[in-house]
Amino acid sequence: MNLQDVEQLRDRLLEQLGKQAQTARYFERYYDGDHIEFGVASTKYRESFGGMLNAVRDNWMPIVVDAVGERLRVQGFRFGEDTQGDHDAWSIWQRAHLDSESELGHTTALTASRAAVLVAPGPDDREIITVEHPSQMVVATESGNRWKRIAALKSWRDDWTGDTRATLYLPDDVLRWRRASADGSNWEVLSTELNPLGEVPVVPLRNRPNLFDVCKSELDAVTSTQDQINKLVCDMLVASEFQAFRQRWATGVDIPLDPDTGQPMQPFAAAIDRLWMVPDEGAKFGEFGQVDLKGYVGAIENRVQSLASRSRTPAHYMLGQTGTFPSGESLKATETGLIAKVRSRQTHFGEAWEEVIRLAFKVRGDARASVTDAETIWADPESRTESEHVDAMVKRRALNVPLEQLWEDLGYSPTQISRFRQMLLDEAFTRAIAGGDLQQPVEPAGV
């Protein structure tokens, strides 16, 4: 690829990156509670109560995202027919701080529809793995083959110099540019290097992708409902400001005039220690009823229920105070839709993390870089009580399910299972030395 073609590819990816950044900013503002769309309110309403609208932030968006994100926890990786978690893969994961970084990547992808992970060679033939924001990293795939990455571009503004930087990752080369500002000035080539991996080292984290590689945010279908909730809350506040208190009326009362201006004067001053008196016996007093705010509360709850249903977020996450909190089988039934959604996200994100680990092994020159039957081990996303879960495992043990499989089903990580295995060997060795019963547990020293 000649330089002109490379520059055209860079500019196309910069344009695509700009669209990604716009989408990411839009949905992340909703996630943060910075709601900017009030199209459900009329122009006159916004003119009259715009200040109140801007102050209303009854934000339900983090619950929609976090209900999924908090159940996406990687516990390890398996390769080939190996039934145990791969120790080296987990070492790579821990070295790159991916316990926390993966959480950030999942939350960003769930909110903004996508994120990316960069795997780059570092010192001592070890990898550097970073999770990238969709406003700074874009990945291009081959037309008709969304699994084959042909290029990736990272562009960002240097906080120290104010320069705009861009790095283009190609299968064979890595090219870097700089320009002094974002006003359209020419790019300056900083370096052109060979790509030692021979493939694009950036893996996309796609949320809800379709066959055309179009991804969707978890908030895509519910931002309009969030706007409706904000509008209804604002209506309730307006009603409480102007109509929630009893307004009084009077007939047959002479209204005095201000001697200086000739304008009508307020004939009565309302207070707890004041009595209203008029000389006319025909005068009558009354009051208008106050507005009942329960109608607004019901409308808001209706919109929240709609939001929960369409996002498959369990209703008790949002409306737990309106009824009995579910437990047991009812809790499992209530969370069925959420669990199905989480498992779907595990499938797509798991493919990406397996590719990240494969690239890390490629940086190290490890043969596992060519293994294609890797598996991501996820923590169990279902909610169960400890007693129910353990009881189910005891029954499975009676069916001769292997002990290590039961440990995994109980939610223990491969690292913990490896520790259990060593503990059992240590106990067996201790019993053998003591000449005791191999079936009896060994009491800890000092007991």
Based on the model shown, name its key terms.
447 residues, alpha+beta, 5-stranded antiparallel sheet, 13 helices, flat
> Into which percent range does the helicity of residues fall?
40-55%
DSSP strand (E) fraction? 15-25%
| Uncertain stretches | none
How many helix segments?
Answer: 13
Q: What's the average pLDDT?
A: 85
Detailed description of the structure:
- By secondary structure, the protein is α+β, with helices and mostly antiparallel strands.
- It is 43% helix and 17% strand.
- The chain contains 13 helices and twelve strands.
- It has helices at 3-31, 43-55, 61-69, 87-95, 98-112, 223-242, 294-310, 315-319, 328-334, 336-363, 386-398, 403-409, 414-434; strands at residues 74-79, 114-121, 127-132, 137-142, 145-157, 164-169, 173-179, 188-194, 202-206, 248-251, 284-287, 374-378.
- It has a five-stranded antiparallel sheet, with helices on one face. Strands 3-2-9 form a three-stranded antiparallel sheet. Strands 1-12 form a two-stranded antiparallel sheet.
- A hairpin with an 8-residue loop joins strand 7 and strand 8.
- Helix 3 (61-69) packs across helix 5.
- The radius of gyration is 32 Å and the shape is flat.
- The N and C termini lie far apart (73 Å).
- 27% of the residues are buried.
